[in-house]
């Protein structure tokens, strides 16, 4: 059959190549995740396991797209940073955006049962957007913006849910109690009324999760070449200088850095990854043998 | 904490609103689905169940986004047509594209176990693209292009796999045997060597699947107002006129048409949908009562 | 010298091809023409000669770009309509936009001395923008919008300047006098106070100028093939149906229509054009002979 | 009259804001200037006066748009560099592109009689394009690319026209003579056959013209604050370091540098500018007094 008569419609697809030499940030956001977290009974203010489903999905994306040098997740959002000179998918905007969004989405669903003891009631949905940052300073400011955001929100939410769950206030009463308070006020409230030192709460809640590609070695003396490459979750302050001095590979010539980890004490996200990669390789091997 | 110092980075997000008054087509394509179908042992040349996972995902997208007037799926791709005057997400290109891609992706994973007796070995991934068509003729030509494509490919694949699976040719031998043949030749080969009348093969394989929003009624005499609205899968020829004369709601003022179905004989995709909607409503009701 | 080391910078030029099958409208606007018209002592509220400089520039653009089917000018703006299927400059947005803007600009300066008895004090400047209209109805509404605009503004300006120039009001007094008045009020004011029937004022002031490509013939009986092609200025109502019934070539298959003109009575803009084309052809002929 | 019914068409104008924090380069190119230069009998291979018409137009643009930090012209093209953080016209792409293109175009026509003893036979036309460069290195490479281009072309053209005008070769013979020659060969040819040391030819022909905004002072000891600001034409090598070390204001915090000029020996382009600014100011003053 002659396709040719209709094929002209292909010319309506327009080129959407991204400007070279800029940081490409793709940010994924959960669609109506307030409703989603209620429907799935997430713990308040933070559900560690639900956050790890996000992190596992982030790791899956970063494993697939080697030109992502850093990812940053908090709450129901995840940002992926492609290095400036990536030529992945010829820098076509739609390809990059949808591959990342799609793989994040499917990985979220597939990782759900590994962390959650409830079943998914309905399919989650994420939107994605692409933002371009020309300079390194812009990129750092972007990431600082997202980390400042988690700080502000998490401090508020921690105080809010303490008031609701432990002091028995209604949502509205808790809102009114917190209206107009500064950070210091909320820190004080947590300490005075609930004996909580906010800075001692888990770093993942306060700082979000930074994913970096590293060579994982057993001890600092190990030759980096030995370790297996993995996506390492880190919960550090990325606003200040020390983070960037330690992980120079992000802004510099991109070569994964070294990450020292005694396997026994490394985060479950990392252990799963190392063992899953092994399993997946074996499974694919099996399939290949059969077919 | 002052977010304001970093908030300027938000201004780097540029407006991507789509021109008004054009058909918005979003097409989803499986990433490396040749490998994916091998890893999951899809039947050749068509795996009815795997196609229905695609269809179920297409239905999920169309249920969520009410301004999609038609979807069309074949092989590992699905096209969604938003009506010209949709204002969904303010016509922001990235929002529309990523919501559709994400929901299709997660729905694919969640519908997998309903149709497939194997587990997913790894997370599937889809890309999405947006194409704009100004005129109704353009839109029909686009859909004709995709349906002509499935015809050409399916006829070839049917002959190819018959030669490989039944005549014992190697892949390469089968390729050589078919090189340069016309449609008529392949029809003849199927008939002479395998006793197959190509036109009697399942319409879903030959025509792909068209999804339309309809009011489902029990008999032609039923008042349309009675039926429940559903996304109805159809395997018709959309290249020719009769399809467009029957489903005038697509190009006209958009009001879902009537679809006559004795539930007992309606496709499983439709039955599942009608019963699942009921179940989902109940589940959500339960959650709401608990929380 | 090796250019190659630097040539990569060319890859930073991105494709800006315009969607096929839409009307392409390019509108030129004078930059700070309020100041410009004061510096060049334009007559108020309308300077016939200054408008004809605009018209002459519009004609020059339409002569050069054969795919412009209609142009419409009023005040310090001019709109050019490229037919939907133009492939001029491969539909590259910047090329189309800047060629039209540039040629309009240079033609404005070159036509100035043919109509104005003062010299240009400084270089005028115009901005240009591209707007896409998918349907014929959109295009007609666009043109109606611009013609409705000239009506509103010209009626106001006519009343305003009568009050200032003949009744001796200050600008501010005239503004206050007209604040909140309806069209009918301003018509009445012109008639009662100045004996002016607004509808008898020159059509160019009230309706703007429509440029159409026509075959100009001497009498209605002439064979159209005989006439020379020219850009004909028309001052009609393009909001209502009759205009579109008369000039069916605009929206239909584009073939210039017939325009009956006894040369003696045709507008100077048309006469100049017919004779200038002749002169230019001769001049270019001369140059060619020399070089 | 109700404009409102048509005003919806305004919503078809889409936002085209340029990404922040990138160098914005707008390059103007003459349309069919080969024909134009023949029709106006430009001297070959370089017409000093015609180049100065281009330079005068470039200066006019740079005087109007204060955020242009450098312009570079050669042959029939001119590039304008807006500083990274310009907010001129809210960085709207079409506005920036068309204002620059239009003002360059009208200034070209208006400056023509100041340099040329022939009249314009027809209106010249220029296209314009916008290219974005994220880093300073990109910008320097862009400018180097254009200056390497003028070197290659001018050396070729100089040899070509010597062969045609002095040795009496036909165009085709000259082409054949030069085919495959390297720069060194052409230098040698000019020296051996025509006694010309290429490096002694006017720098404007070999290097093009760089326009910089400077405070013009009479002697190096003058306080910079005293001088009047002007656009200074320079014919230097901008590929190498010294240029950038001398004019640090271009890439640095933008403050016009100092330019030492004894008025008597400064280029006519600069003298005209200083005196014209004065005249224009006076003319505008006069108009203001009259109106």
Describe what this molecule looks like in 3D:
Four copies of one chain form a homotetramer. By secondary structure, the first copy, chain A, is an alpha+beta fold. Among the domains of chain A are: 130 residues, Alpha-Beta Plaits (2-Layer Sandwich), CATH 3.30.70.3000; 54 residues, no CATH class. In chain A, 46% of the residues lie in helices and 17% in strands. The first copy, chain A, has ten helices and seven strands. In chain A, strands 1, 2, 3, 4, 5, 6 and 7 form a seven-stranded mixed sheet that branches. In chain A, helix 5 packs across helix 6 and helix 5 packs parallel to helix 7. The two termini of chain A are 33 Å apart. Chains in contact: A-B, A-C, A-D, B-C, B-D, C-D. Chains A and C meet through loops of A and loops of C. Chains A, B, C, D: Its EC number is 2.7.7.79. Chains A, B, C, D: It comes from Drosophila rubida. Chains A, B, C, D: Pfam families: Thg1, Thg1C.
Short description:
Chains A, B, C, D: InterPro entries: Thg1_C_dom, tRNAHis_GuaTrfase_cat, tRNAHis_GuaTrfase_Thg1, tRNAHis_GuaTrfase_Thg1_sf. The structure is a homotetramer of 291-residue chains. Chain A has 291 residues and is of the alpha+beta class.
**How many strands, what sense, and barrel or not for the largest sheet of chain A?**
7 strands, mixed
Radius of gyration of chain A: 22 Å
Give me the CATH superfamily of one domain in chain A: tRNA(His) guanylyltransferase (Thg1)
Low-pLDDT segments, ≥5 res of chain A: none
Give the overall silhouette of chain A: globular
């Amino acid at each position: 059959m002659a396709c040719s008569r209709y094929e002209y419609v292909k010319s309506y697809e327009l080129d959407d190549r991204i400007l070279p030499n800029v940081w490409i940030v793709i940010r994924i956001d959960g669609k109506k995740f307030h409703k989603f977290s209620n429907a799935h009974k997430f713990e308040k203010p933070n559900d560690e396991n639900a956050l790890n489903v996000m992190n596992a999905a982030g790791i899956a994306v970063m494993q697939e797209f080697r030109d992502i040098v850093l990812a940053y997740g908090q709450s129901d959002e995840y940002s992926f940073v492609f290095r400036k000179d990536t030529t992945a998918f010829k820098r076509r905007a739609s390809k990059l955006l949808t591959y990342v969004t799609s793989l994040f989405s499917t990985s979220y669903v597939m990782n759900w049962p590994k962390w959650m003891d409830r079943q998914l009631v309905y399919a989650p949905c994420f939107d994605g957007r692409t933002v371009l940052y020309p300079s390194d300073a812009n990129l750092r400011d972007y990431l600082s913006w997202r980390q400042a955001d988690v700080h502000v929100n998490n401090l508020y939410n921690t105080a809010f849910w303490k008031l609701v769950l432990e002091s028995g206030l209604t949502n509205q009463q808790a809102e009114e109690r917190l209206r107009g308070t500064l950070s210091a006020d909320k820190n004080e409230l947590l300490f005075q009324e609930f004996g909580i030192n906010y800075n001692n709460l888990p770093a993942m809640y306060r700082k979000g999760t930074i994913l970096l590609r590293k060579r994982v070695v057993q001890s600092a003396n190990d030759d980096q070449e030995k370790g297996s490459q993995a996506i390492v979750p880190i919960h550090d302050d990325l606003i200040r200088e020390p983070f960037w001095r330690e992980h120079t590979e992000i802004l510099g010539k991109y070569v994964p850095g070294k990450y020292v980890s005694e396997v026994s004490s490394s985060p479950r996200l990392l252990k799963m990854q190392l063992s899953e990669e092994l399993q997946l390789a074996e499974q694919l091997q099996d399939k290949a043998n059969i077919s």
